[in-house]
Design goal:
This protein has 2 domains: 180 residues, no CATH class; 110 residues, no CATH class. A hairpin with a 6-residue loop joins strand 2 and strand 3. The protein is globular, with a radius of gyration of 19 Å. The longest helix is centred in the last third of the chain and has 34 residues. The chain is α/β, with parallel strands linked by helices. The strands form 2 sheets. A 6-stranded mixed β-sheet has the order 1-3-2-4-6-5. It contains 10 helices and 8 strands. The N terminus is likely disordered.
Length: 313
């Protein structure tokens, strides 16, 4: 089925700058309290604004900024160079897009001849999924909140961002840096799209390792203690790792990262935490066998985990 994830239509009439001319981030988008809708968030930022036209480029740029400012916030809080590099890449290298509903395609705002932009950031709102049910159905196999898709050339790779108003700022930032890290790896030709034994899983191992550094710095001692408590509880059964908790959300993650805003965020947090638990367990178990063996074990486990889960994380 042809979907907006597979087809891109360039709207050449909108040749617009996507970031402020001086490259600064609008810090007014940071540290927002929870709101029920994106529209409510945007009205908090600009109380004089009338109802936002969701089909407009201006509205789409505002949503993009909510994601980018969250990524900037996490990068600055953690002080990790790789996170700063990812955010610099995302601010300079991305077209911005929205589902158009026309033959399942996506409309990309920007100059199609801009050679510096080789990634498409697709903003998907709840309204989009209601308005374009065929596209919503196409998304069902991959209901991740932030998803990187390395499409075959000449199609540009995508980052699909959903549920903006249902995800807390810190978690938006972590997820954007994860997907952005994969995108930058792809741009740097370091992304393994199938050449290794476990294909993209090998790149995911690298990015999840970097993501765990972010989660550890944001969560501090509480996160480290909770992580190791889970690691000590891991068991092996018929060659598989059995992670404590059975995938159910551990509310102590709310104490670490602040309250999750939705079931989608709770599921995402627990899935990423599970990956970090498994990776740490394998690092300890196989430490004596060398780094290459550990990385291969992680890739094998991640590959099977994603297949079982049925989603990208």
């Amino acid at each position: 089925m042809k979907s907006f994830l597979a087809a891109v239509r360039i709207a050449t009439s909108a040749l617009l700058l996507l970031t402020p001319a001086n490259g600064d981030t609008d810090t007014g988008y940071r540290n927002l309290s929870r709101d029920d809708t994106i529209d409510a968030i945007l009205r908090r930022l600009d109380p004089t604004a009338k109802e936002n036209d969701e089909s407009s480029l201006e509205y789409t740029l505002k949503i993009r900024e909510l994601w980018l400012s969250a990524g900037d916030f996490v990068a600055e809080e953690c002080g990790e160079k790789f996170a700063a590099d990812v955010m610099a890449y995302l601010r300079t290298a991305t077209h911005i897009a929205r589902p158009s509903g026309e033959n399942g395609e996506t409309t990309v705002f920007g100059d199609p001849d801009d050679k510096q932009k080789h990634l498409v950031m697709v903003i998907v709102t709840a309204t989009d999924l209601t308005k374009y049910p065929d596209q919503a159905k196409a998304l069902e196999p991959a209901p991740a909140i932030a998803l990187f898709l390395a499409l075959k050339k000449p199609a540009l790779p995508l980052i699909v961002l959903r549920h903006t108003d249902q995800i807390s700022e810190k978690w938006r930032g972590i997820l954007l840096l994860h997907s952005g890290g994969l995108a930058k790896d792809f741009a740097d030709q370091a992304y393994d799209s199938g050449g290794g034994s476990y294909g993209p899983a090998e790149s995911e191992v690298k990015i999840h390792g970097l993501e765990n550094k972010l989660m550890s710095k944001l969560g501090g001692r509480r996160y480290s203690k909770l992580l190791m408590r889970y690691v000590r509880g891991v068991r092996e059964k018929k060659g598989s790792l059995v992670i404590p908790g059975g995938g159910h959300y551990d509310k102590r993650l709310d104490e670490v990262f602040g309250p999750a805003y939705s079931e989608a965020e709770r599921a995402s947090r627990q899935a990423h935490f599970t990956v970090n638990v498994a990776f740490r367990y394998l690092e300890i178990r196989d430490a004596s066998q060398g780094a290459e063996v550990v990385q291969n074990q992680k890739a094998e486990w991640y590959h099977s985990y994603v297949l079982d889960l049925g989603v990208h994380i």
